[in-house]
Specification:
The chain is mainly alpha-helical. It contains nine helices and six strands; from the N terminus they run ββαβαβββααααααα. The chain has a six-stranded mixed β-sheet.
Length: 373
């Protein structure tokens, strides 16, 4: 059972220092009783999790130190700590951060060294080696969490719109089926009326007007023409889009191969070009919407890593092939037995060539001697 602490003994001005107390859970209710405490130090304890009430009850905190604990995650409502400016999570076991970090608009300092963060979070957090890195980490995490929230909201709206479109299409499809059934009934009635012969009408003693069915051929033809035009335009549009996509892919492949060859020929120039391309890409991406910017960042990071890996692999392969070629060439030059074999093969080919030429000469000479009748 955890020992009960007298928090008054640990308060100094606006700071509550509960570090190095072997705490396994935070006494949230007791801490909330001191609203003037704006700095809370919980470092060097054995905390594995924070309760949901932690973020709701301690919104007055400005500085929070959770370093050197065993936290695996933060509560999803961690963003309720809207007044937080300084957050230390050094040396925990946190892999990901809640998207409610987007609400921490006042956060100015964040240290997340020695945490097994997922790759994309690790990229945005950075190394946190000095105060400048920690300030940048706070800004980046809040911005990225905001962009992720926007992207999720956009995706939800897109899904709802798709669902609505599907429902509307189903209603239209049902209306079309009903219309087809009505049309089918009309045609059946017209066929029955057409079966009534003039003889039957005369035998009845009077000539009555027989209702006949006139198919709406003009409307049908017009609809058929419209469908043909739409399908033709759609086919041409698909061809244009396909051509553009393949052109872009072809240009990217050629550009990538050119960069690889440039790395083999002149590596400093290759590095300068890559730096300039990276600079242009960053300036262009800065003007894009938040959700698109995040998607582009993931794509470009993955693409650059693949290009880097491919270039390294290509250079290694070419080096191996070049060394193999040099070794083979040196072996051919240095080994006298190989030289003898090469001379024998060349002599054999020359002899065979001479024999074939002699055979052809005899053949054509024989043809010339045959008399023409």
């Amino acid at each position: 059972m955890a020992r009960k602490l007298n928090l008054k003994d640990y308060i100094s001005d606006d700071t509550l220092d509960l570090s190095v107390n072997d705490l396994q859970e935070v006494p949230v209710k007791e801490i909330a009783a001191f609203p003037k405490v704006t700095s809370l130090d919980l470092s060097n304890n054995k905390l594995t999790t924070l309760s949901k009430s932690f973020s709701i009850s301690l919104t007055h905190l400005v500085k929070l130190d959770l370093a050197r604990n065993e936290l695996r995650e933060l509560p999803k409502n961690f963003g309720c700590l809207v007044n937080l400016k300084h957050l230390d999570l050094y040396k925990n076991k946190i892999e990901t951060l809640p998207l409610s970090f987007a609400n921490l608009k006042n956060l100015r300092w964040l240290d997340m060294k020695d945490n097994p963060l997922e790759p994309h979070w690790h990229h945005f957090v950075g190394p946190c080696l000095n105060a400048q890195d920690c300030k940048a980490a706070a800004k980046n995490v809040v911005n990225i969490a905001g962009m992720m929230n926007e992207e999720i909201s956009t995706e939800v709206l897109r899904t709802q719109a798709k669902q609505k479109q599907i429902e509307e299409n189903e209603i239209k499809e049902q209306a079309k089926k009903k219309e087809k059934q009505k049309e089918k009934k009309k045609r059946k009635n017209a066929a029955k009326l057409a079966e009534v012969s003039p003889k039957d009408v005369i035998e009845n003693g009077s000539i009555s007007e027989v209702e006949t069915y006139i198919p709406e051929s003009a409307e049908h033809n017009e609809l058929h023409v419209k469908n043909n035009i739409q399908s033709t335009i759609g086919g041409k549009l698909r061809k244009v889009i396909s051509g553009l996509v393949w052109s872009v892919i072809y240009c990217l492949v050629v550009f990538t191969l050119a960069l690889l060859l440039l790395k083999l020929v002149n590596e400093p120039t290759h590095n300068r070009i890559m730096l300039r391309l990276n600079k242009y890409a960053q300036s262009a991406v800065a003007h894009l919407p938040g959700s698109f910017r995040l998607s582009w960042h993931k794509f470009s990071t993955r693409l650059l890593n693949n290009i880097k890996y491919a270039s390294q692999y290509t250079v290694t392969v070419w080096q191996i092939l070049y060394k193999s070629f040099l070794n083979g060439y040196a072996f051919l030059i240095s080994d006298p037995s190989v030289d003898v074999w090469l001379n024998m093969i060349i002599d054999s080919f020359l002899t065979l060539y001479i024999r074939i030429c002699e055979l052809f000469n005899m053949f054509f000479s024989t043809i010339k001697l045959i008399p023409v009748s």
